[in-house]
Amino acid sequence: TVDRLSDLEKLSVLGHGSSGTVYKVRHLRTSSLFALKVLRFGPNAADARRQAAREADILTRVDSPLVVLCHGVLEGSGDDHLCLVMEYMAGGSLHDVLRARRRLPEGLIAGVARRVLEGLRYLHGMGVVHRDIKPSNLLIGSHGEVKIADFGASRVVAAAAAVGPAAGGGDDACAGTCAYMSPERFDSEGFGDGGGFAGDVWALGVVLLECFVGRFPLVEAGERPDWATLIFVVCFGGPPAVPDAASPEFRSFLGRCLEKDWRKRGTVGELLSHPFVAKCCSTEGLVDDTFYI
Ligand code: ATP
Ligand code: MG
Prior knowledge:
Pfam families: Pkinase. This protein is an alpha+beta fold. It is built from 10 helices and 7 strands.
């Protein structure tokens, strides 16, 4: 574990999110690379801060090659931020990959599906519902291995931002956090009475469809996925349209993920034995620069 910020040398900025900034850093003594996520809190956010610390505590207990590991939780100077020392993922996020390649072939999409389902099986087995599965939270290692990042933490920090004085507009906050939400999560009831696990499966379905069509698939090209549009499409619309070019296996798989009634939706266990992911499923091509479609 890394226990002091002063042991780390800042190398570059890896990205910005709603909760803060992620830096590439080097541990001075061992020369190991890490990603340092700096979560910033507004003033008067003590509760949110404690809640984030508890989430960070869950992060440090997670231990699986399917999940981006957290090697330490560090307090910054002052109590307005918290730093998470994370495993460095050299391939960036699936969001970065999609920006570069736009679309992925079905073979790679099946590989992503399999890895994320295995990661969800692990997390759900620990009683952890991710609640924020989206391309920027699926990170890629140097050999193309896909891992789940940011479970829980981003939700808590987003809630903190919404009550703080520096809160952004409701619709802006939504654009980043609710685009992959399942129909039952738009309900005032919350996550349905199944504990919310099915919501992670819906989000995975949206992500995989996005990999196939090359853009966020639930709204028209160029349209903003704001709260009102999403309620209309996700809650009141028909099942999301899948292009004719998709294979029958992929179509059937997406149909099970994007089933609107969470009680009838495919479970992680069922989907892991679906023919779409049961065949090959390597994700090495995600970091192969010569491979573009
Ligand atoms: P949100 O705040 O809604 O979660 P986000 O996922 O884009 O959005 P962050 O989780 O702060 O925000 O991450 C910002 C970016 O930093 C990611 O999109 C990714 O490109 C990069 N990143 C995050 N964690 C790592 C990591 N462990 N290794 C390499 N890059 C990372
Ligand atoms: Mg993230």
